[in-house]
Amino acid sequence: MIEGAELNEREQKDRKRASIISLFIGLALMLVKFWAHNMTNSQAILSDAMESIVNVVAAGLALFVVHYASKPLDKDHPYGHGKVEYFSSAFEGGLITFAAVLIILEAIKKYFSGAVLTELSTGLLLVTAAGVVNLLLGLYLLRSGQKSGSVALRASGKHVITDFWSSVIIIGGLILVLFTGWFWLDAVLAFGVGCFLAYEGVKLVRESISGLMDEEDVALLQDLAKIFEKMDFRGIIQIHHVRVIRSGWYHHIDAHVVLPEFWDVNTVHSVMNKFENGVIKNYKYGGEMNFHVDPCRRVYCQSCDLVNCPIREDRFVQKIPVTVEHLRSQHEPLE
Asked: Which CATH superfamily is domain 2-212 in?
């Protein structure tokens, strides 16, 4: 078993800095949007402001989660503390969905009761400025989350980007209201934003459940297939039955590997130790690997490139290509 390096001090600081920036900018944007709503009496802007409340709560939660998830492995948490990030992401998705339901209900109420909007021009300027800042913040959080492997930061980034697009819809609609005087359109916009947020919230919960349940991630298997293909180790004949347990930034990888049956324990240990080190070095997440060794049983001679094999019964033709299908299979290709 080979373990990858834990989050270094710089990565931990980057995560915490991103969380703090998200919290304070989110709080400022929330106040700006409520100010714009108070000025315009716009239900659409109120829906945007309510979404900002979720942003602030999520950012505060992410700050705690990022700190907790960065703790090193211990005897009580042998796979690390990263799973807590999925709980954070699921909670954030639930908050988005709950806010969306409130927005939809309030929009329906305002549509039938009617409302007059005031000072739309100034309100639009405030919401537009807030939207631009949201876009920049979302891109920053996504980049930070991708770089450090933080599920919580990526979830927050996706959420903020979603908030930006809802702001774009609101701005476009309110410009139309400004020039046409169709005040009823304000409630329709709020209803549309609520439906959009409900969809995004449910999707975020779904993705979080996927991480908690360790649902197979084909993209990760594709990455591993490329790494395995690039690692040129004579005697490593074939790899299959690969499983990845994701714990935030830390991944535990199990796999079966076919090796020459005449290799002794020392040779197997030496070769696999070097191979595993190379894989972890090229893998974009931290983690550890465990390999179950299967003997070749002299049926892989045409696929084994080991020179001077004393038990070879056929000449070498070509290695078995590393594919996602082979990695997913629970059985050897020649079994």
From this structure: Cation efflux protein transmembrane domain (1.20.1510.10)
